[in-house]
Amino acid sequence: GAGVSQSPRYKVAKRGQDVALRCDPISGHVSLFWYQQALGQGPEFLTYFQNEAQLDKSGLPSDRFFAERPEGSVSTLKIQRTQQEDSAVYLCASSLAGDLLNQPQHFGDGTRLSIL
Amino acid sequence: AQTVTQSQPEMSVQEAETVTLSCTYDTSENNYYLFWYKQPPSRQMILVIRQEAYKQQNATENRFSVNFQKAAKSFSLKISDSQLGDTAMYFCAFMKLIKAAGNKLTFGGGTRVLVKP
């Protein structure tokens, strides 16, 4: 595709429900990142994939958060037993390779998650 | 761990005027990159300008320029001839250069820029 595509654009869930957020990176992009952006704040790193390998998950806030990229393309961020503090915009970014200088990160429009 | 601080929550500027956004960071790294991103209400992060820490020359991209002071760990953004389309949140970001791993970005808290007609 022409850009990074995220779906859904908006998601409302009740506390305790599980949610799944999808990211479709730019075709051929090796690196994929997930960020969490709370209201009025800057994005914070969650996790990173190089192809299908999850090389860094240091930013995941709890074991309720799980991400996968089984075929090295589409990625899914899953949040189990959602809590109100999970309400945020979840941004996905992809880049051609790990060297950011020559291949910048391209961001999607994000998914706004609201937990009631 | 790296931290990025943007001390101005909001700035307003008249159309065609100049505005400068401040950013300071804290790191013990010597090799890194710095970025300014723009986030309009559509939420998509757009790269505005980037600076390699090993380069002394300040980066320039059309109406956008930076003042990089490595010793002071300061990285300000100047927007010249402001346009209505510049209205957005602006984020300063730091990236430590890591080979064979993801080059994740560390963002500041953002500065909201409002360009007035």
Query: Most extensive interface: pair and counts?
Result: A-B, 30 and 26 residues
* Mean pLDDT value of chain B: 93
At the first level of CATH, the class of chain B is Mainly Beta
Structural class of chain B: mainly beta
The percent range for strand residues of chain B is over 45%
Task: Report the oligomer.
Answer: heterodimer
Question: Can you describe this structure?
Answer:
The complex is a heterodimer of chains A (116) and B (117). Chain A has 116 residues and is mainly β. Helices cover 0% and strands 47% of the residues of chain A. Chain A has a single domain (5-99), classed as Immunoglobulin-like, CATH 2.60.40. In chain A, the strands form two sheets. In chain A, strands 2, 4, 5, 6, 9, 10 and 11 form a seven-stranded mixed sheet that branches. A four-stranded antiparallel sheet of chain A has the order 1-3-8-7, with no helix packed on it. In chain A, strand 7 (65-68) and strand 8 (75-79) form a beta hairpin. The termini of chain A are far apart. Chain B is mainly β. Chain B has no helices and twelve strands. In chain B, strands 2, 5, 6, 10, 11 and 12 form a six-stranded mixed sheet that branches. The mean pLDDT of chain B is 93. At the A-B interface, strand 4, strand 5 and strand 9 of A face strand 6, strand 10 and strand 11 of B.
